Amino acid sequence: MAAFFGETPDNDQSRQALFRRSDNTLSLLQAGFSGFERFYKVSKLAGLLPEGSGWIDDAIGFGFHHGGAALDTLSGPIADILADPPQRSKLAYVRTVVRGLGDNFGMDMTGALGLTSNFSSLDGD
Description:
By secondary structure, the chain is mainly α.
């Protein structure tokens, strides 16, 4: 969403959205979100969390439930969604939820599981 959804309406760039011409940007967002939720459930990552970390699963479940519900209320081409203040507001909520889920997975869950990630400038990425 960062490519097309600005912090303010003046910064939106709907022409940068994937699948804009076919009006499938929203479908892509919905499929990606629901696919990630399905992956989380099927992977049973929550079962790996140590005792006392159940709040992480609760937070992730909250994000998937409410973010998915907000996405499901949106309709139309992405340019129309961005131009319509109520729909744009819902999309902003989804962005907030996705950022929160990123923190839940990238910091909370990995920390609870004792996982670390390191960046190496020498590995060619």
